[in-house]
Amino acid sequence: MTLLINILIGSIIFGYAGITLYKSIKKQKKGKCAACSLQKSCSSNVCAPPSKLKDISHK
Predict the structure, then answer these.
(1) Is 42 helix (H, G, I), strand (E, B) or coil?
(2) Among 10, 34, 47, 58, which residue is least crowded by beta carbons within 10 Å?
(3) What is the pLDDT of residues 1-47, one digit of tens each?
(4) What are the C-alpha distances in Å from 41 to residues 36, 37, 54?
(5) Is the dihedral of CA 34, 37, 40, 45 positive or negative?
(6) How many Å apart are CA 32 and CA 46, to the nearest integer?
(7) pLDDT of residue 6
């Protein structure tokens, strides 16, 4: 019984860590502002995703 509880708790901990890591990697791929708390109200283009920054610099 104790082994089953330990396996369940371990699965929950590693599952949560995996989900958190997945979300973090997903945000990093979007660019600097993906994790910013001011993302919705930000009016600057400083934090544009990398692909948009390249397009702006070539014009």
Answers:
(1) coil
(2) 58
(3) 999 999 999 999 999 999 999 998 888 887 666 666 666 666 665 65
(4) 10, 9, 23
(5) negative
(6) 9
(7) 97
Instruction: Give yes or no for a contact between 20 and 12, defined as CB atoms under 8 angstroms apart.
Output: no
Q: Give the number of residues written for the chain.
A: 59
Cα atoms in the 13 Å half-sphere on the side-chain side of 19? 6
User: How many angstroms separate the CA atoms of 19 and 42, rounded?
Assistant: 27
Amino acid letter for position 52: K
User: What pLDDT sits at residue 59?
Assistant: 47
Integer distance in angstroms from the first to the last C-alpha of the chain? 66
